[in-house]
């Protein structure tokens, strides 16, 4: 009896130790992130921004006390992230958890910060109900407040918090502009809220290329595709913006895709302007073995097939010296054209993205029909092509003083730039369109990263690429895929079976031999 | 220690002296590879996430088959008494049997190495979650084995030992699944997540080694091994 009692006490003691040890370990927040890009601990860039804070930052986490069960884990994860910020800041960041529903004054205050309760589904007593709750964070620095009105998951939390820190502690706000009238599409309506995403970090303004004043205060101009010639004044203003040191990102199509009739080469005068900056956008369409599957209709039924003109640029074909691309698994460029860059005494270039070695070009007869895009018979037609690049340095004007159109006031004309700048060119604008961005979420990450990289360096890009999807499988033929699949299904089980049989037979023979020996004795 | 190693050898090689070990490993490998490669090229991503999602479920049904005989058979055949007359402590026997089963399951797990090798052949996968996932599966296996040994120690019927072992593992695993926590009150949801095997596996399989998770698996295994020890001690 006494023995049983002692065992019970020992067991209770062990259970108690286990529970206590787990509670203590939970508070210590000691974890090792084995992932390559250290995606579950704060990045180096966040740490350096947090350590560089010159004044105290206060982060208030708003969460209702009676949260639904499905949010319990999210709350713990958010608090863990905030605690990490606090630990790294060495006292510069204070955090507080507040239940806004406990006091109407707090709710009113939150309303001023743009935070309102969100509706979430709960399942209680076999019924699905909708309840209101708060899951938001406000960051206070001096007299500034920035908020995340709804933290849906922690995947983007570090990016959002660090960009808020960068924004509210930075003395300068960069201005990004985009022409609203004239391009093939309006960037603010491009989908996936591209301008909204940019506005979290920069001041984003629509501009008219007709007004020089609109361009004067810009740090970066985004130029989506133009299907036609720009009027003289607009081309002149754009040229002078670049020559005077404005950064520009061009997303421009070498071929105007037409779904109803034949697609044609894009002959906009923008191409001549770019040529004057040592950049050529060729009038061709790239096809690649590395591509995405699309669904299309042959008139009778919906079919899904690999589409070589939806080029999937893999990480291995990206320039990793841009740390914004280091962890980006892939980018999908639909109906993209090849680019050529050259050096001169004023400027140089970086190739940012290339096709695989097994790409081919469609020239002149620009068919986009998925059933007619078979690879060339001659392997010599396959090659590697440039899809995105950055020209940097100083630039000469497209104009000479004597050939500036007469109707333009050229009093402040600059022929050769004195300030260094950068021109980014991607050979397609289709990758920024709504339906493409929705399906290929990495495209948005690439767009935002490359803009960040042009304005901020790589401060935020490293953090954003932590959010991206897993790396993709390199392109393989169907036969290779099938071989790999069956080899894996069969190889290891077969090895085990063969080994088992050999061992079984050898044991049987040994047993037999031993038996015979015994009998002989 | 030496006695424990002798028990370990007896148990470990005992598996490979019968066909059961080969059948177990073969069926495990076929299922694991089948479920993983079924959608691998369709998903087109270099990750082992689907493998780490399905393998704890496969373990739920397989590990109790490994552990059900550990004590139940000794009791049924009467070899238990012989074992306890030998100059070995109860802990030597418990730990020897535990490590014998654990190394056996670890070998089965190791034989899925073809999957990460294929991933490396096909590109540049992030090996952090792969290493984390394997470590997590190893810890899950250790917990399941301890639970299975406890189930085997309370009955002399192997089928009952299997059912009890699988039921406890299943319960501890599903408690942390969203389809259970979503229906619970916040307090119970927190409690279930804290004691569930699956919720602690989630972060390890993402590639994050949190001391809380490691402490949980160590604690769970220790508690059930102690329970086995209690059961033996009671019956000696």
Average pLDDT for all residues of chain A: 84
Helix/strand-derived class of chain B? Answer: mainly alpha
Task: Give me the CATH fold name of the largest domain in chain A.
Answer: Rossmann fold
Assigned CATH class of the largest domain in chain A: Alpha Beta
Give the total of domains of chain B: 1
The gross shape of chain B turns out to be globular
The share of residues in helices of chain B is: over 70%
Short structural summary:
The complex is a heterodimer of chains A (521) and B (236). Helix content of chain A is 34%, strand content 25%.
Structure explained in plain terms:
The complex is a heterodimer of chains A (521) and B (236). By secondary structure, chain A is α/β, with parallel strands linked by helices. In chain A, strand 8 (175-179), helix 6 (194-199) and strand 9 form a beta-alpha-beta unit. The two termini of chain A are 54 Å apart. The longest helix of chain A has 43 residues, at 478-520. In chain A, the strands form 7 sheets. In chain A, strands 9-8-10-11-23-22-20 form a 7-stranded mixed sheet, sandwiched between helices. In chain A, strands 3-2-6-7 form a 4-stranded mixed sheet, with helices on one face. Chain A contains 14 helices and 23 strands. Chain B is mainly α and 236 residues long. Chain B has one domain (2-39, 46-235). The two termini of chain B are 21 Å apart. The mean pLDDT of chain B is 87. Strand 1 of chain A pairs antiparallel with strand 1 of chain B, so a sheet runs across the interface.
């Amino acid at each position: 009896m006494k023995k049983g009692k002692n065992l019970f006490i020992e067991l209770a003691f062990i259970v108690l130790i286990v529970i206590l040890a787990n509670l203590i370990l939970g508070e210590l927040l000691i974890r090792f992130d084995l992932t390559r890009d250290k995606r579950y601990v704060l990045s180096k860039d966040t740490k350096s921004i947090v350590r560089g804070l010159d004044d105290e930052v206060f982060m208030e986490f708003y969460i209702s006390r009676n949260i639904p069960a499905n949010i319990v884990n999210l709350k713990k994860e958010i608090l863990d992230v905030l605690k990490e910020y606090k630990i790294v800041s060495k006292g510069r960041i204070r955090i507080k958890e507040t239940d806004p529903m406990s006091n109407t004054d707090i709710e009113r205050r939150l309303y001023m910060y743009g935070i309102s309760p969100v509706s979430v589904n709960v399942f209680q007593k076999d019924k699905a109900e909708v309840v209101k709750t708060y899951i938001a964070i406000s960051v206070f620095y001096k007299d500034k407040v920035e908020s995340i009105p709804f933290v849906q998951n922690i995947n983007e939390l570090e990016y959002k918090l660090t960009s808020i820190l960068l924004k509210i502690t930075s003395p300068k706000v960069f201005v990004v502009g985009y022409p609203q009238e004239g391009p093939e599409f309006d960037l603010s309506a491009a989908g996936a809220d591209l301008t909204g995403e940019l506005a979290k970090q920069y001041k984003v303004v629509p501009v008219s290329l007709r007004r020089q004043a609109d361009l004067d205060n810009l740090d970066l101009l985004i130029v989506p595709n133009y299907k036609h010639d720009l009027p003289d004044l607009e081309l002149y203003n754009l040229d002078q913006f670049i020559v005077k040191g404005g950064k520009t990102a061009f997303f421009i199509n070498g071929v105007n895709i037409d779904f109803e009739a034949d697609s044609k080469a894009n002959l906009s005068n923008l191409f001549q302007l770019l040529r004057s900056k040592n950049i050529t956008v060729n009038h061709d369409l790239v096809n690649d073995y590395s591509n995405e599957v699309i669904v299309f209709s042959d008139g009778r039924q919906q079919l899904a097939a690999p589409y070589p003109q939806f080029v999937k640029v893999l990480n291995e074909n990206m320039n990793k010296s841009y740390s914004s691309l280091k962890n980006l698994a892939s980018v999908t460029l639909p109906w993209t054209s090849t680019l050529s860059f050259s050096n001169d005494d004023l400027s140089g270039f970086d190739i940012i993205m290339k096709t695989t070695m097994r790409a081919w070009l469609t020239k002149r007869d620009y068919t986009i029909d998925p059933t007619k895009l078979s690879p060339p018979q001659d392997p010599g037609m396959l090659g590697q092509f440039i899809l995105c690049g950055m020209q940097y340095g100083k630039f000469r004007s497209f104009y000479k003083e004597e050939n500036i159109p007469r109707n333009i006031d050229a009093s402040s004309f600059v022929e050769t730039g004195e300030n260094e700048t950068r021109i980014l060119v991607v050979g397609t604008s289709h990758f920024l369109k709504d339906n493409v961005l929705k399906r290929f979420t990495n495209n948005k990450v690439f767009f935002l990263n490359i803009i960040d990289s042009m304005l901020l360096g790589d401060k935020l890009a490293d953090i954003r690429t932590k959010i991206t999807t897993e790396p993709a499988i390199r392109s393989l033929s169907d036969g290779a895929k099938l071989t790999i699949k069956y080899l894996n299904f069969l190889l290891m089980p077969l090895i085990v079976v063969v080994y088992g049989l050999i061992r079984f037979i050898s044991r049987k023979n040994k047993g037999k031999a031993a038996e015979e020996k015994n009998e002989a004795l | 220690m030496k006695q424990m190693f002798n028990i370990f050898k007896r148990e470990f090689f005992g598996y490979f002296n019968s066909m059961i070990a080969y059948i177990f490993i073969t069926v495990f490998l076929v299922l694991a590879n089948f479920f993983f490669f079924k959608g691998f090229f369709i998903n087109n991503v270099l990750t082992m996430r689907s493998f780490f999602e399905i393998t704890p479920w496969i373990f739920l049904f397989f590990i109790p088959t490994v552990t059900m005989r550990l004590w139940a058979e000794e009791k049924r055949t009467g070899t238990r008494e012989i074992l306890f007359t030998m100059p070995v402590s109860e802990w030597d026997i418990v730990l020897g049997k535990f490590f014998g089963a654990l190394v056996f399951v670890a070998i089965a797990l190791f034989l899925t190495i073809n999957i990460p090798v294929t991933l490396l052949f096909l590109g540049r996968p992030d090996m952090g979650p792969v290493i984390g996932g394997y470590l997590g599966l190893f810890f899950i296996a250790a917990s399941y084995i301890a639970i299975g040994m406890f189930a085997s120690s309370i009955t002399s019927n192997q089928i009952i030992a299997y059912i009890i072992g699988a039921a406890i593992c299943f319960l501890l695993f599903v408690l942390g699944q969203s389809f259970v926590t979503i229906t619970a009150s916040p307090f119970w949801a927190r409690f279930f997540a804290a004691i569930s095997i699956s919720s602690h596996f989630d972060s390890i399989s993402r590639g994050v080694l949190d001391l809380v998770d490691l402490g949980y698996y160590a604690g769970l295994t220790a508690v059930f091994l102690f329970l086995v020890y209690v059961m033996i001690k009671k019956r000696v």
